[in-house]
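JOB MANIFEST
job_type = single_chain_structure
chain_count = 1
residues = 268
[input]
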Amino acid sequence: MNDDDRWLRELAQVANDEKLAGETRFDGRWDRLSAGDLSSEEEAALRALAKTSEDGREAYKAFRPLGPEFQARVVQKLREQIPRPSPAPVPEPVPDPPAPLPFPWPVRRISVWLGSGAAAAAAAVLLLIFVPPIPRYTPHPSGGVQAMRGAQSDQLGTLVPGSTFDLLLTPQTAVSGDVVVRCFLARGSELRPWPVPETAIQKVGGGVLRIHGTVGSEIVIPPGGWTLWAVVGRPRALPDAAALRAHLARSQTRARGWEALKIDLKTE
C-alpha cells in the first residue's frame, strides 16, 4: 500500500468518525433525557452508548438531569455573590459585577456543538435547572350546547353566547408550588395567544386549575372550529406563542416545567 492509499483510508476513517459523532450529538433522545421523559429502556440504551463511545459519554454528561444537589450548590454560590447592604448612609460607588460563575462542563460542551447559539442555549439550560418539574396533566372540558339530547354533561358541546365553558386541569399527582395556565388558539397554520381573564381562572389546590366562565362574557372565542392549547406549568417555564409553535412543529407537547394540553372546540 502506497502513501496515497494510506492517506485516503485515514481520511475516510476520519470522515466516518465525524459522521458517527454527529449522529450521537443530535440524537433526539438527549433532549428527552434532559426533560426527564425517557423510558427506562431508552435511558439504559443511552448509558450503554456512553460506555462504548467517547461522544456518547460526553453527551450523557451534558444532558443528564443535574439533580437537586447541583441546584442547591448553584443557589448557594449565587447567594454568596450578592453584596451585603452597607449601613453607611453615604452612597458608595457601584461595585463591579461579580465574576461569572464558571459554567459546568456540559454547558461548555454544548457551546462547542451549537456554535453561535451557545450563549442562548446555556442560559436556557441554567434557567431550567431552577424550574421544578410537574407531573402529567389531564384536561376535562365541559359545557356548551350538546348536539343531541341526552348527551353526557361532562363533554364539551358547541359554544354559543350565553352558554357555560368549563375546563378542569388535573395533575396525576398533587403539585406543590405555584402552577399557572396560559392558553392559545390554533387553526391551520395560525397560532395566537388567547387571553383569559384572571377572574375566570381558579386555583383549586394541589396544582389543580380551572377555567370557568360564560361564552360571550369572560370566554370570548371567534366563531368556527378551533384547537385550544392549554399550557400548564411553572410561571418561568411557560413558552410564548413562537416557542410553542416550534415545540409543536417537533410534536413536542411537554418539557421540563410545562405541558401543553389539546382541546378541540367549536363556537357559533
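[summary]
The two ends are 79 Å apart (CA to CA).
Confidence is low (pLDDT under 50) at residues 103-114.
exit_status = 0
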